[in-house]
Amino acid sequence: MTVRVRFAPSPTGNLHIGGARTALYNYIFARANGGKYILRIEDTDQERSTKEFEASQLDDMQWLGLVHDEGPGIGGEYAPYHQAQRVEIYHKYADQLLSEGKVFYDFCSDDELEKMAIKNKEEGTPPYTGKWKEKENWPEAKSRVAAGEKAPLRFLVPDIDISYKDYVRGDVTFPKGMVGDFVIMRSNGLPTFNFCNVIDDHLFKISHVIRGEDHVNNTLRQVMVYQAFDFPLPEFAHVSLLIGEDRQKLSKRHGATSVKQYREDGYLPEALANYLCLLGWSHPEEKDVFTIEELSHKDIFTLTRFSKSHAVYDIEKLKYINGQHIKKMSLEDLQKRVEPFMPKESWYFKQDTSWQQNFISLFQEKVHLLTEFNDMLGELQGESFNLTDELKEILAWDTTPQIKDYIQGQLESVTTEFVDADTFSQWMNHCKKELKIKGKPLFMGFRGVLTGQNHGADLKVLIPLTPVSVLKTRIAKL
Ligand code: GLU
Hints:
The chain is built from 20 helices and 11 strands. The protein has helices spanning 17-32, 51-64, 87-99, 110-123, 138-146, 193-203, 216-229, 259-264, 269-278, 292-295, 315-328, 331-338, 353-364, 372-381, 389-396, 400-412, 421-433, 439-451, 459-465, 468-477; strands at residues 4-7, 36-39, 103-105, 153-155, 162-166, 170-174, 183-185, 208-212, 235-239, 242-243, 311-312. The chain is elongated.
């Protein structure tokens, strides 16, 4: 079977991390099986869909590396890929169902529908029991439509159990009577989601529908539509919901939910993609740090590895994974990724390339977010001490004033903006050999008087990156 999968976002907001996860699963599944990944824009909700949201979602997808094989901007055999441009197609299919007596025009008012739904709920019958579902009223309905009246088209729900096979949930059966006759075409002539989604998946020859568990109830209706047309069913995989640590559905309350926000917060696209894949799917070798390319193999990314239970979103784990990807990155690549996070007027841009690379590499192992490099820059330039108890203890050792006096004297004679690494080593050697200070008193003493901290990055690299003027100010404050 040729694998053809799709991601079908509605451009009614920024790309949500849940949507990005769905897109990733589809993309990887296509890549793993030599298939095609199609992007379809579900923009029939005219009030909520905007071109700006569409552009922003496309931009975030591109950032994540989700390049589609067919869809907006590229075209393809089944174009157009915007549902708003396919309305005539949906009408043609709706007309077919109408001529086959599988849908009917409904002239009930909103008020009638509301009362009907309340009453039917109490009686435990499906919500729609209006008179227009009765065949004898169809000629009247059709002549009203012919005379120019507008009415939605409702699908005549068959009185049978509905089953489908789900990769995640196994064999799913919905007993009959669960849903009422649902609208497939609104009175404004636009299709509903459950109708056009099926028509397009069929016309696009979609083989697998991989999407969120929140769509299971739509699948019930959609299977009915497939059956009404005698279209073959695609394979379904409904992936588990994302929840917060409080086990509630993931929302803004739990932190950032848009891909854009993570981009701005200093996350790498490969790390966000990596983490999102782990939410509801697991690597056959239990790996938790990987690239999308590494997953894109038939024997690694299989639909049977999806988990049924809800996936708990854990920002700390995402941060850890981001740090792991930062660590693995080449210095040149990392430098390119860091620079957009440095303010334009930043002191960083005033330094030469070797200073910049030493700076990036010094903190590469330490940071979790790209934004943290700017914080580290702030630390290099910071002139004041935080006199913690640990620092007070270091300053109280009788060796520390000796180190301080020696370094202060040396700093007086430095005329360059930075001390070089050799000079710094000579200072250390001097204190070791001449002042006979060794081990912890030596290293901690140096760190204490030069940085005002009792821990931090490798001094041999850190000090040559710190301006001499800052070192002088700090030491004078002790
Ligand atoms: N437009 C739907 C959504 O954004 C697509 C659902 C599907 O994948 O079928 O949820």
